[in-house]
Design goal:
Layout (H helix, E strand, L loop, with lengths): L8 H6 L7 E4 L2 E4 L1 H12 L10 H31 L6 H17 L13 H15 L8 H13 L3 H16 L1
Antiparallel strand pairs: 1-2
Helix pairs in contact: 3-4, 3-5, 5-7
Subunit structure: Homodimer.
Protein name: glutathione transferase
Enzyme class: transferase
Length: 177
């Protein structure tokens, strides 16, 4: 990303939006991380635990994925990106919106081990990436005990969590230090 490879003509042929991540599976280009997750689990998943086939269970997973993209991560970006990329001062209202989003998530988790119920799903994998970014940015999760407990479960049980953490740590070193 920093080297600008996503702007090269050969990349733009795959993904004219030039966004990261982009996956090419047997010649099929795909971008947007949540869409990639759905595609991979539908094509290669051994069962439907990560993305249930039951319409109601799947609807909850989808809602959590959309919440992650449209609310949780969006509000992180609304608060931090002006500071990082435009050198603007912190916006207290945007910080309140971040806190509100984490509060919503804390409520979603009430009585559940994972974001969409009792099983780890792709919603948890996506949300864990966003929450890890909040965490490396120094967000205080003390008022959100359900999020704290969920994050501990994700750190222990989500496949690839260590790789995600390494990326979050790299983000912190590059932009937040």
């Amino acid at each position: 990303l920093m080297a600008g490879e996503h702007m090269k003509p050969e990349f733009l042929k795959l993904n004219p939006q030039h966004t990261i991540p982009t996956l090419v599976d047997n010649g099929f280009p795909m971008w947007e991380s949540r869409a990639i997750q759905i595609y991979l689990v539908e094509k290669y998943g051994k069962d439907d635990k990560l993305y249930p086939k039951d319409p109601q269970k799947r609807a909850v997973v989808n809602q959590r994925l959309f919440f992650d993209m449209g609310t949780l991560y969006q509000r992180f970006g609304d608060y931090w990106y002006p500071q990082i990329f435009a050198k603007q001062p912190a916006n207290p209202e945007a910080k309140k919106k971040m806190e509100e989003a984490v509060g919503f998530f804390n409520t979603f988790l009430e009585g559940h081990e994972y974001a969409a119920g009792s099983d780890l799903t792709i919603a948890d994998l996506s949300l864990a990436a966003s929450i890890a970014t909040y965490e490396v940015a120094g967000f205080d999760f003390t008022p959100y005990p359900n999020v704290q407990a969920w994050l501990a479960r994700c750190k222990a049980n989500a496949p690839g969590y260590a790789l995600n953490q390494a990326g979050a740590d790299e983000f912190k070193a590059k932009f937040l230090s």
